[in-house]
Amino acid sequence: xxxxxxxxxxxxxxxxxxxxxxxxxxxxxxxxxxxxxxxxxxxxxxxxxxxxxxxxxxxxxxxxxxxxxxxxxxxxxxxxxxxxxxxxxxxxxxxxxxxxxxxxxxxxxxxxxxxxxxxxxxxxxxxxxxxxxxxxxxxxxxxxxxxxxxxxxxxxxxxxxxxxxxxxxxxxxxxxxxxxxxxxxxxxxxxxxxxxxxxxxxxxxxxxxxxxxxxxxxxxxxxxxxxxxxxxxxxxxxxxxxxxxxxxxxxxxxxxxxxxxxxxxxxxxxxxxx
Length: 274
Description:
globular, 25% strand, alpha+beta, seven-stranded mixed beta sheet
């Protein structure tokens, strides 16, 4: 069933993603009323009416496209953490972040995106990263490469001896232990900065515009689409234990992403203090 879907129905997923953004997100961009923005865990953890309605829209449309599938969406998990368990079940799962970069969206910054990935038994099979305000759609299917607006992209490798450009978990969303681990990136030869939208940072690595990433939180909706995109562009990733990050298990954190294997290993070693 999954193979047949991947072979024939991906254009319908793209259409669903674009429609959710057109109907629920873009009409509210730079038009949000104060009562349409709420806090979740704190003042930096925002949710808007666009997040909620876009996730509802995608949940309905994606499960229609693939009957029997489940959805693990950021807002649904916030309402009921038990939803996350679907990632460990046998049914195919849509992993959805309706507005990745809500802080940017609220602030009127176009650097936000909608993230959708299709996974089965922990394997990410396909992904869509759509930045509607930038008119960019990045797609990946396992074994078939990574594309932006239909053109293939590759991550390449950093120039020998060049300073590594690394985006790391934003300090607004990190614990003291996280900050200590990320501080190990403050070494000669590495230029680290806080990340914005995780999905768009993954896209930059897949395009070779950034060399690597260092993340300290496990939320599947932030990582699933980007991990496949980077992998299909030739990149690599690893947790600090030296094994790949997976959406269907507990992972040792932080984890590292790189344009190539050597870069991912270099970031991982720094995070481990080696």
